[in-house]
Amino acid sequence: MSPNVVGISAHYHDAACCVLRAGRLVAAAQEERFTRRKHDPAIPRRAFRYCLEEAGLTLPQVDCVAYYENPLLKAERQSWMSQRRAGPGLAGPDADRPLRDIRRVLGIEGSIEIVRHHQSHAAGAYFFSGFEDAAILTVDGVGEWETMTFAHGRGAEIRQLAAVNFPHSIGLLYSTITAFLGFEVNDGEYKVMGLAPYGRPRYVDQLWDLVGRHDGPNFELRLEYFGFLDGDTMYAPALAELLGHSPRSPESELTPFAEDLARSLQIVLNELLLAKVRWLHEQTGAEALCLSGGVALNCVANHRIRAEGPFFRVFVQPAASDAGGALGAAALAHVRLTGERPATEPLDHVFLGPAYSVDGIARLLAAGPARYRDFRGDEARLITDVAARLEGGQVIGWFHGRMEFGPRALGGRSILGDPRRDDMRDRINALVKKREAFRPFAPAVLEAVAAEHFDLPGPSPFMLETFPVRSPLALPAITHVDGSARVQTVHPRQNPRFARLLDAFGRRTGCPLLLNTSFNLRGEPIVCTPLDAMLCFIRSDIDTLVLEDFVIERAGLPASWVEWWHETAPDSFQAVSNVVYTFL
Ligand SMILES: [Fe+2]
């Protein structure tokens, strides 16, 4: 049997959908990209529609829908929490809702397979790692009751060895400090990681005081410091007393205290995770490790695990947070239906989202008043043009091919710049990102020459690990204060046009690297469609937009679009969208 399986994650954050056709992952996308609502948790109606279309499937051809967590277990934990807060008698959460919504919103009449949350995470890493035998560590905030699980994957089987249950959670420890530092939980954890290298490890002892027993597979929080169970904030007043500091207000100035706390947290996280993978290695004897769950997006800890941990090979699921749960749920449902694991080759790229035809973009542009250059049929000239613009210091919005699945832009929906320029980080922040100045940007580099510029052991195609910079070039725009960078290696097999651009830029400048950041405005999802890219271009100050084979300069935009945007509704995506729609 070669089943068509749809995987779904939803109702928490980062709802996503994917399709496995005969065990092969053919499409995956997050709902936020279509609805333009960041971290959209709704049943992924539009991502589902896209995935079926991409896979060439009709609804009756879907053999099974796999949902990434057990709604009954989740409701049980939520009820337990609300009874702690409000006492018994409160109406419990609606445990039937996810499956009811899947049937109602997506029109599914056939079987729905439930896969537990941490099993979905574990399977999403293991079955796409290419390993036949691997230890699997999953660490997140919480899924149903579990917050950290240890497992061993062999062939088509994943056996769970141990679990840590809510409220004890390494993910929630990290999120609690994220909240204490004035950043948004489930969004600001990356900022804490970026802030850490600026600080000194002055609060390591205090942070260890937040942790109780943590030997072997165990992990306990000392709950008197945490508010997420009973309070209105993630942390309890006792945390401020312990640290001798009050929590930072959001958007306020970042003090040395914040930097020091972030640094201390990173150290405690590194030590905790290293101890856990060592225990897992002792238990499994496996040579390979798979990492998943939101905590596996911590690139600094990933580097420590690879460099100092006991495993020869490490695979991190690129969409390690709950979006990736859709992949694992689908993979496990495939195993249940067939008795066999899905495709055995490792995940080579995450260009699993929609692409848009060059002819369609041509029609879109031809219908509007924007001036543009048309490079159809002459990619070499397009690449030369873009490389020259980058060399001249331009910031480029780069839209090509299928959209990436997961949180990183990897050359499909990217903003690109010259990493050698001192001012490039500030410029991109001023033009488009408007994000905290301390956060470094990441480099994309041709895989063949990556080792000349970074101290890395092999390919790193998903930007999931930091490595020391050892380039003979000065690369201030992508080098963090501690001399590291979050590297993406690019092989022509994965994205031929992006590889050719890196090569062309390298030939012109001697620098086969580009600064690569995601194509979006602050607080918005990464662009999905050509129109999204155009709207982001209009509302930012990016110099040039490359929409597949077309190049649009800022000066080529009609003045009315830009004026209208600056004069009227700078915060309203919908408002500008309507104006541009009338033109396009
Ligand atoms: Fe999770």
Descriptive report:
- The protein is an alpha/beta fold.
- The two termini are 46 Å apart.
- Helices cover 36% and strands 18% of the residues.
- A hairpin with a 2-residue loop joins strand 6 (133-143) and strand 7.
- It binds fe (ii) ion.
- Residues 117, 121, 140, 143, 293-294, 322 line the site of fe (ii) ion (FE2).
Feature tags:
584 residues; alpha/beta; Nucleotidyltransferase, domain 5; five-stranded mixed beta sheet; 18% strand; disordered C terminus; binds fe (ii) ion
Which ranges are low-confidence, i.e. pLDDT below 50, for 5 or more consecutive residues? Answer: 569-584
Q: Ligands in the structure?
A: fe (ii) ion
Secondary structural class = alpha/beta
Q: What's the shape?
A: globular
Number of helical runs?
19
CATH class of the largest domain: Alpha Beta
CATH topology of the largest domain: DHBP synthase
**Beta-strand proportion:** 15-25%
The portion of residues assigned to helices is: 25-40%
User: What is the mean predicted local confidence, pLDDT?
Assistant: 92
CATH homology superfamily name of the largest domain: Carbamoyltransferase, C-terminal domain
Biggest sheet: strands side by side, in what order?
A: 11-20-19-12-13-18-14-17
In short:
By secondary structure, the protein is α/β, with parallel strands linked by helices. Helix content is 36%, strand content 18%.
What does the secondary structure layout of this molecule look like, with pairings?
Blueprint lengths: L3 E6 L6 E6 L2 E7 H5 L9 H11 L8 E4 L3 H16 L10 H10 L5 E3 L2 H10 L6 E11 L2 E9 L2 E9 L4 H11 L8 H7 L8 H6 L27 H7 L12 H29 L3 E5 L6 H10 L4 E4 L8 H14 L19 H9 L6 E2 L4 H13 L4 E4 L13 E5 L6 H10 L8 E5 L19 E3 L15 E3 L1 E3 L5 H14 L3 E6 L11 H10 L4 E4 L2 E4 L5 H9 L5 H11 L1
Parallel strand pairs: 1-4, 4-5, 6-9, 9-10, 12-19, 14-17
Antiparallel strand pairs: 1-2, 2-3, 6-7, 7-8, 11-20, 12-13, 13-18, 14-18, 15-16, 19-20
Helix pairs in contact: 5-12, 6-10, 10-11, 14-16
